[in-house]
Amino acid sequence: MEKPARKPVLIVCAVLVLLAAAFLLFGRDSTPGDSSPEAGFARDMATHHAQAVEMAFVIRDKGPAKEIRNLAFDIITTQSNQRGMFQGWLQQWGLDQATDQRPMAWMAGHGHGATPATAGTAPGTAAGAMPGMASPQELAKLKELQGVQAEVLFLQLMIRHHEGGVEMAEGLLKLSKRDEVAGMAQKIVQGQSGEIKLMTDLLKQRGAQPYPSILAS
Question: Any residues with CB less than 8 A from the CB of 69 and at least 6 apart, and which?
Answer without folding.
Answer: 60, 63
